[in-house]
Amino acid sequence: MSHVSSLSRDVPLLERYRQFLPITDQTPIITLHEGNTPLINAPRLAANLGVRELWLKLESMNPTGSFKDRGMVMAIAKALEAGSKAVVCASTGNTSAAAAAYAARTGLECIVVVPAGKIALGKLAQALMYGAKLLVIEGNFDQALDMVRALAEAHPITLVNSVNPYRLEGQATAAYEICDALGDVPDYLALPVGNAGNISAYWMGFQRYHAAHLVESAPKMLGFQASGSAPIVHGAPIAHPETLATAIRIGNPASWQLAVNARDESGGLIDHVSDDEIVAAWRDLAALEGVFCEPASAAGVAGIRKLMREGRGDAGGRYVAVLTGHGLKDPQLAVEQFTVPAPIPAELDALERVLNL
Ligand code: AN7
Q: Ligand 1 in contact with 64 (CB < 6 A)?
C-alpha cells in the first residue's frame, strides 16, 4: 500500500492534472517533481490572528523553492512542443530561478533580465547555477518586463513571464490541490500580489473545479500588495515601487485586470500591507509555526491580521494563506532582524553563564 501511494505522489504535475491543462499528445511531460506541496494546519498562528482555522500552502516546497515552478513546467513544455530553442523572462527573482531550472532540465537556452540590487541573493545564485544568461538592468521589474516583451516580439525567443497564458494554466493546479486536500474550498484564500498572475490563476482554478462539480462553491480571494508597491489598491501604476519584499516590488502588474476580476467575481478584496506588517507576519510564521517563508510570502498572513484588527475579518472563517516562496532565498534580510551574539569561549562554564544555569 505505502509503495503504491508513494508512486502516485511521484506522478508529474502535468500528468496528475492533465484533464485541466492544455496538454496534447505532442506535449512533453517534463518534471522536476513540482507541485503536490504540503497544506498544513496552523493553529498557533490562527489563535494569534484570531481566526478559527488557518492553513498554510507551502509553495516553498517546490523544486526551485517557489510557486513559479507550476507555471514554468507548463510554459516550458509548451515552448518545447512548439519547437522553441530559447526562452526569456523579466523577474524579481523567482520566475528567473524557475525558468532557468526548467530550461536547464530540457536543454533550452534561457535569458533572464532582473533589476540591479533588488534580487534576493538565493535567487541570483539559482539563475547563475542553472546556467541562465543573466542580464542586470539599471531599472526596475516593470522596465525589464517591457524590454523582454519587445525582445520576444522581435526574435524567435519564447516569453515565459505570466503574460504567457500557459503560466497561469500551470499555476491553477495549486487551487486544485487545495480543493483535493480539504475536500472542499476554504472560505478565504489570502496571498501576495505582485505581477498579479497568481491570484488570477488561483481564481481560474477554483472556478474550473466548481464548474466541474468537484467543489460546491469558490473562496473569496484576498490579495495583498506591499504599501509602497500597491498600484491595484490605488488604481494607478506606480513609477518607482518600493518594498523590502523585493519579490513583489512591482508597479504595473501585467495581470492587473484579471486580478481585479478575481477580486470582484469572488467577493474578495485587494488591500495593502506595510513593510512592518509584512516583517511581523514573516517572523510569526517562523516563530509560531516553524515555517520560514520569504518576506513577500508573508503578505497574505499580514493581510489577514490587518483585516481582523480593523474589524473586517471573519473570526469563524476557514482561511488558506499561500506561502509563495522559501525563506532561505533571502537569508540576509532575516539575519538583519536580529543581533547575532558575540562568540563566547568554547567551554561549558561559559555556556552555563550565558544561559544563567
Ligand atoms: C515569493 O519572480 O514576479 O502576483 O518575477 O516571487 O503572480 O506576480 C514574483 C512574484 C509572490 C507575486 N510571492 O506573485 C518574479 C515575480 C513571491 C513572488 C509573488 C512573487 P504574482
A: no
